[in-house]
Design a protein that fits this description.
Length: 114
């Protein structure tokens, strides 16, 4: 009835979210490398720049993966809810017709008894 048509999008959203979380951890490892090199007395600016750029790139990946994950999951969810509403609308019309017929039938019975 609902989101079967959008399973692929939900799975892609979860994969992107996991990649976003993994990307979010990388800057911490970069900072650990930088601090370790500083403690050892390293003075090579290129070494520090390499790890700073790696941390920045990882953070940007985190932002992109998380944003894509959110956008895809929300879109799939809204489409799923739309499909459910469309299916329920058809059911609601059938139920309304049934209840109108029943009400008329029951009203006729009560009128006859009085």
């Amino acid at each position: 009835m609902g989101g079967e048509a959008y399973h692929g999008q939900f799975i892609l959203s979860v994969v992107l979210a996991v990649l976003g979380v993994a990307s979010q951890m990388i800057p911490y490892f970069c900072v650990a490398r930088i601090v370790s090199e500083m403690i050892n007395g390293g003075k090579d600016i290129h070494y520090y720049m390499k790890w700073c750029l790696t941390a920045f790139a990882a953070y940007m990946c985190k932002v992109i993966f998380s944003s894509l994950s959110t956008a895809i999951s929300h879109t799939a969810t809204y489409h799923t809810l739309r499909d459910i509403r469309k299916n329920l609308k058809g059911i609601k019309v059938c139920m309304q017709i049934f209840f109108i017929r029943e009400k008329k039938r029951l009203d006729g019975k009560y009128l006859k008894k009085q």
